[in-house]
Amino acid sequence: MKLGAQLYSLRTFAQTPEDLRTTIEKCKAMGYQNVQFSGVAQMGADVWAQISKETGMEIVCTHNAFDRIVNDTDALIAEHKIFGCSVIGIGSMPNEFRGSRAALEKFFEVMEEPVKKIEAAGMHFAYHNHAFEFEPFSDAEGCAMDALIEKKNWFLILDTGWVNFAGKNAAEYIERIGGERLQCIHFKEFQKAEVSTICPCGEGFSNFPEIIAACEKVGVKNALVEQDNAPSKEDPFNEMERSANYLLPLIAKE
Description:
The chain is α/β, with parallel strands linked by helices. Helix content is about 45%, strand content about 15%. It has ten helices and ten strands. Helix 8 runs parallel beside helix 9. It is globular and about 50 Å long.
């Protein structure tokens, strides 16, 4: 398994080609082996491809706006082909599809055609979770996470921090979903069960040795560190480096 950097964590340093290149090079120097593009300024797929090639850091997945996935699918696919990324992800479902099984089914209906196009292009659509997906439906048994796992043709970018935040066991969900649908997952850490307390990995309540063991067991390919609030910290790059320094020795032991 490779450890990557979710560039949303450093999004304020990825708004020009020069800054993006420097940011990726800094991540590489920390020990990160690849990247996810999210929150990065739109510079053109050819620019992203060139920076990825020059730095030697593969773009393993992306997060994209719901509107682009649904209404600009063909262009999105073409762009991903240019910079060599096969996992087209979404950060979350819009609010109108949350809370009930009926609303979620409408989300599935809207996504059906774009997902078919993505699959026909030899790529994969992937859904990234937060904590709300674990809340019980208002009109049926179960929860959105159960239904998402049932969508066998969808990949998942499982966010281990949000799973733990919801009071669930991230390692158990990794094994339940399996490595085939978890090419990329997020390593996120909370100091305590408050949204404002996201912190570097190893400084909170996640059991990363257990999580990493589960990843290795099922064959997860890429674990990407995502620290949403890093840009608001005094030294965002140090926040990401602390995660790398903690996680890399654990991954090397497996």
